[in-house]
TrEMBL record:
Positions annotated as active site in the UniProt record: 76, 153, 482
Region (Disordered): 138-157
Keyword Zinc annotated: no
Signal peptide positions on this chain: 1-24
Biased composition (Basic and acidic residues): 138-154
PA domain mapped to chain residues: 313-396
Identification of the protein by name: Subtilisin-like protease SBT1.4
InterPro entries: ArgE/DapE_CS, PA_domain, Peptidase_S8/S53_dom, Peptidase_S8/S53_dom_sf, Peptidase_S8_Ser-AS, Peptidase_S8_subtilisin-rel, Peptidases_S8_3, SBT
Species whose genome carries this gene: Ananas comosus
Length: 710
């Protein structure tokens, strides 16, 4: 059934922000995100569980038995099985559920009977598309033709989604505590789809189909297309996820690391859970202290001998041959023994420190330029180094320029957990909406922890994945939407276990309508790209809140037929729809009943006005899944600027559990003929019954032709 374009099609990238910034800062930023999962957090432990508010004593964790009967399929760079995150020793896990039909496959460098156990229940590898695309067999001197993860990303994402609790985890001295996957007792099945030269569509689709056939409950994909989202019928992840939805398997994907531009989110099909990345309340501060007494806050995961309080001479790399600190381009005479201020951009951040080290420099201050603003990423540098934002960078550059003998030192402050600065914030790299392929489907869906996430790592590569870095670590701290996605995959596994009767759309609805939108200081979650409040095109429905998702009150459900009607509504032909259904059936769009893609029963609203006086009406159906048969919900609307919103009826009176009721929302543009400033506005629709708040974000867009710059 596979069309030729499914084979050898575009290379897909992993979404972690680790390495070469060449991708991230020039084309798209593909990040694999790795995330060490939070644990029942002792105060000093990794804090992402704390932000997720998961507790061993109440809520979703105990009520789902930590998802021990669920299998999470992680399609990624493979698995490093000997990490304690994948051990079944302590947890006395029983054999996997009888519905599990997957297996572990042995290969030259992978002994399945030694690697797999009741925790790691599957390990397979998919390479035929890769070999066909490369035109040669895999070079086994360069990479392992097996499920083995020699890169690190897959081990990180798998342990984030479903790693066992590991005490005393950390990265050198940083983030010490219990590391634990979100679905702590869920089983892991690793499907290696990404190779040294990329992840290929046909391997991705084959692995998705295999995971579904094997009996996985959730598929976690921290992978996506490079560039704008491809059309759904040419997007292997969208096609595979459609098949998953049909069989009740939740597919959770990263949105990509191509932010902060608009339309950068990928994996935007409505049947996919699309996850952006946010910060957590854990920082790794390292201050740049200057000879004039000023100090600028930065971040670092440098783990070697710290600098002492003695001030060292400070130079700007731009005055020493290479503003960007390209290896080999720095003048050793000018940097020897000094702290070098390097500009961010182009080459990998850790490589810049290495370039300073090779040229004889003592330390590095890495400063953002306008391109990255105030977004800070803590890196495990090979020399004493910290990263500062653009504002601090400009001040330090000025200080160097205006001082006869500029000096500085770096003060490393270890791991700091607390309310300042406020968290979560949306990372600037996190890809944003609107949805490039279907404006009426709001994307991303949610945000989840994706910055400075601690999780397990491969033993085959360094924590920076740079050859110049000889270190090997059990755990690593990295950032990206790749790290955010497996958090939500873990939450989906917990919810699927607690509510086995819920469809993938229902799981997604519960996660979205219960997400929160205020940070820990009570303000709307901010966007690190602007410093301002984030919008639903940036944070989707908000930050995931798993315990609330357990009891959402109402669900916006959808089935495969609804998705077929959606494809009809965006003009897909029967042949194009057959790419998704893959069962020989022919869709007849004249018999489907979705007037507009915005009528899909989605837990969010994105309205595209065609004029300043346009009126758009969408219909929704909600199912009562609370414990109260006669629940009564009242609507509360926060209307976007320039829009009159009418909800009818404004009161939903149920008389049984499981009952569905429908409502209509009319969005009437009341904007002036000429719109000044932004052609977007935002609001929300909230249904509340006194014990549940069921919230949907609203985004409206006017044609840019109506916008005046004055
Ligand atoms: C694979 O691992 C099993 C279990 O540890 C061991 O008995 C067996 O000898 C190993 N096989 C090979 C080929 O190393
Ligand atoms: C601080 O470090 C410098 C450079 O490494 C060294 O020369 C100096 O002795 C150190 N001072 C103290 C007080 O340790
Ligand atoms: C330093 O000052 C000179 C002259 O004002 C200016 O041209 C140069 O761009 C400055 N360099 C930095 C790094 O600010
Ligand atoms: C699609 O449905 C319409 C209305 O029922 C019918 O007239 C038409 O023949 C169908 N087309 C196909 C290709 O089945
Ligand atoms: C919007 O509501 C206001 C106040 O009720 C009303 O005056 C106005 O006519 C409405 N505009 C549209 C386009 O519905």
């Amino acid at each position: 059934m596979a069309k030729p374009f499914l084979l050898l099609a575009l290379s897909i990238v992993v979404f972690a922000l680790l390495f070469s910034e060449a991708y991230s800062e020039q084309e798209t930023r593909s990040t694999y995100i790795v995330h060490v999962s939070p644990a029942h957090a002792p105060p000093q432990s990794s804090s992402s569980p704390a932000l997720l508010r998961l507790s061993a004593s109440s809520g979703l964790w105990p009520l789902s038995h930590f998802a021990s009967s669920a299998v999470v399929a992680v399609l990624d760079t493979g698995i490093w099985p000997s990490r304690p995150s994948f051990s079944d020793a302590d947890s006395a896990l029983p054999p996997p559920p009888s519905s599990w039909r997957g297996s572990c496959v042995s290969a030259a460098s992978f002994n399945a009977s030694a690697a797999c156990n009741n925790k790691l229940v599957g390990a397979r590898f998919f390479y035929k598309g890769y070999e066909a695309a490369m035109g040669r067999p895999i070079d086994e001197s360069r990479e392992s033709k097996s499920p083995l993860d020699t890169e690190g990303h897959g081990t990180h994402t798998a342990s984030t989604a479903a790693g066992a609790a590991v005490k005393g985890a950390g990265f050198y001295g940083y983030a010490r505590g219990v590391a634990q996957g979100v679905a702590t007792a869920a089983r892991v099945a690793a499907y290696k789809i990404c190779w040294a030269s990329g992840c290929f569509d046909s391997d991705i689709l084959a692995a998705m189909d295999a995971a579904i056939a094997d009996g996985a409950d959730v598929i976690s994909l921290s992978v996506g297309a490079n560039g704008y989202a491809p059309p759904f019928h040419r997007d292997s992840i969208a096609i595979g996820a459609f098949g998953a939805a049909r069989r009740g398997v939740v597919v959770s994907c990263s949105a990509g690391n191509s932010g902060p531009g608009a339309y950068t989110a990928v994996n935007v099909a409505p049947w996919i859970l699309t996850v952006g990345a946010s910060t957590i309340d854990r920082e790794f501060p390292a201050d740049a202290a200057l000879g004039d007494g000023s100090a600028y806050g930065g971040v670092s995961l440098y783990a070697g001998e710290p600098l002492n309080a003695t001030l060292l001479p400070l130079v700007y790399a731009g005055d020493c041959g290479s503003r960007l600190c390209i290896p080999g381009a720095l003048d050793a005479d000018k940097v020897a023994g000094k702290i070098v201020l390097c500009d961010r951009g182009l080459n990998a951040r850790v490589e810049k420190g290495s370039a300073v080290k090779i040229a004889g420099g003592a330390a590095m201050i890495l400063a953002n330029t306008e391109e990255n603003g105030e977004e800070l990423i803590a890196d495990s540098h090979l020399i004493p180094a910290t990263m500062v934002g653009q504002i601090a960078g400009d001040k330090i550059r000025n200080y160097i320029n205006s001082t006869a003998s500029p000096t500085a030192t770096i003060v490393f402050r270890g791991t700091v957990i607390g309310p300042s600065p406020p968290a979560p914030k949306v990372a600037s790299f996190s890809s944003r909406g609107p949805n490039y392929r279907a404006h009426e489907i709001l994307k991303p869906d949610v945000i989840a922890p994706g910055v400075n996430i601690l999780a397990a790592w491969t033993g085959a590569s360094s924590p920076t994945d740079l050859d110049i870095d000889p270190r090997r670590v059990e755990f690593n701290i990295i950032s990206g939407t790749s790290m955010a996605c497996p958090h939500v995959s873990g939450i989906a596994a917990l919810l699927h276990t607690a509510h086995p009767e819920w469809s993938p759309a229902a799981v997604k609805s519960a996660i979205m309508t219960t997400a929160y939108n205020l940070d820990n200081s009570g303000e709307t979650i901010r966007d690190l790209a602007t410093g301002e409040e984030s919008t639903p095109f940036v944070r989707g429905a908000g930050h995931v809140d798993p315990n609330s998702a357990l009891d959402p009150g109402l669900l916006y459900d959808a089935q495969v037929d609804d998705y077929i009607a959606f494809l009809c509504s965006i003009g897909y032909t029967a042949d194009q729809i057959a790419v998704f259904t893959r069962d020989g059936s022919t869709a007849n769009c004249s018999t489907t009943t979705l007037p507009s893609p915005g009528d899909l029963n989605y837990p969010a609203f994105s309205v595209l006005f065609s004029s300043h006086s346009d009126v758009v009406t969408y219909r929704r159906v909600v199912r009562n899944v609370g414990s109260s048969a006669d629940a009564v919900y009242e609507v509360a609307v926060s209307a976007p600027r320039g829009v009159n919103v009418t909800v009818s009826p404004s009161r939903l009176e149920f008389n049984s559990v499981g009952q569905s009721l429908s409502y209509e929302v009319t969005f009437a543009s009341a904007a002036n003929p000429v719109i000044v400033g932004d052609n977007y506005a935002f609001g929300s629709i909230l249904w509340a019954d006194g014990s549940h708040n069921v919230r949907s974000p609203v985004a409206v867009t006017w044609p840019s032709s109506l916008v005046s710059s004055s």
